[in-house]
């Protein structure tokens, strides 16, 4: 199933493009913050690049309300919609909010419960992406007790438009954290849970895998970059004293990482503060009053419509028939 007017195989809405051309916006970066509401989930897009402009970014173009499951560095979101009559069989959508393009993809095995999911774009012209899903059976017998630590792995490849099962991964499901997957160095990464006093956030920094850490009782924030990915060697590149900032904003919590050197900090429930690690400059954006975000996804996108692989194949076929 595809969107009737706005999908990967069609052009973007003319009015949207005209609006964007008038504002001269080429790229946008920031965060998508998602919360639980009575009817399901709701999300808002917050941008540091163009805080005074109407970027037109929302999920209102989708055919139904959705929950965001994953984001990519190219502006694509993986979303699901749960039908009330089939709560255990959600529909899966891939979309690019900046161009109002969307596509429904096949479901993975519904009898397995999703534990973690991530998406990575491998090529943008034509669009080629993969989705990795870790899951577990909803019920296991005592005979399967030796497999309690195993996670089922499935990969969706947009080239073949299908899911394929891979070997199970031996990992305690309780070790998986709730933070979204991070795409860096050609792989997807998840931050596992820890029982230390430090707060960690896994991020992508200038194409590399990075880690932001802060101790509960300390006013210092550290940025670590993986210097050698194969050998797993990390290097501390930034140490930031937050004492002056916490005097002004005493209730901040680390939310994520935006752009190349900007940390997002939540101040209560109605404000998001962007803090530049290099120059110490802060900018704040107001959230809807009482907007209690339960998940935060980094968001980077251009406004260039994408062509899907299937659309490219269709156009080639038409040309061959004409010749």
TrEMBL record:
Segments forming domain F-box associated beta-propeller type: 197-248
F-box protein At3g26010-like beta-propeller domain: residues covered: 73-196
Pfam family, one: b-prop_At3g26010-like
Organism: Dovyalis caffra
Tree of life domain: Eukaryota
Annotated protein name in UniProt: F-box associated domain-containing protein
Annotated PANTHER family: F-BOX ASSOCIATED UBIQUITINATION EFFECTOR FAMILY PROTEIN-RELATED, F-BOX PROTEIN INTERACTION DOMAIN PROTEIN-RELATED
